[in-house]
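Worked Example 4.2. Consider the chain below.
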Amino acid sequence: MLDWRELKILCHSCTRCGLCETRHNVVFGVGKENADILLVGEGPGEQEDLTGEPFVGPAGKLLDDMLTIIDLDRNSNCYIANIVKCRPPKNRDPLETEQEACIPYLRNQVALIRPKILICLGRIAAQRLIDPDFRITKQHGQWVEKNGVWMCAIYHPSALLRDVKKRPETFEDLLSIRKKIQELGIPL
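Applying the procedure from the previous section yields the following structure tokens:
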């Protein structure tokens, strides 16, 4: 396992898949490096690619608002990363080969952070980390424990921008996350 510095250097010079050819920036992750709560999305979008930080566009603003509801903040008590660290062209879903090339970086991040709770933001992250057959419309907000880490998935903030009818369900999921944080005695 690499330490944070070594991992960042390796990740920022990565050429394991074709996404490196079109990226502006590697989007490594942001937040408290020993957080009890880790949020994982699928991959960077245009704004993230330009800035090098995950969830900074409209979806990022919505995510920050969602986190505020449950007393989380990307700078103080959680960590945010993605399955792939470079933007897929035109924000398409990351290909299986791209995910395979990048997943060792996320695994190393998880090993360094050692979260108690992992929240998948959207279908792609949930299928990669919880269950390949995960159905976000049916299984969002449901908890599973894997290797001592409590995991659930919620709708991706971009999906909530496209379909506001999903927001009440997501609010309930956020309340469930807050309840799990309290049950585990995680200080915020």
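The chain is about 40% helix and 15% strand. The chain has a mean pLDDT of 97. Compare this with Example 4.1 before moving on.
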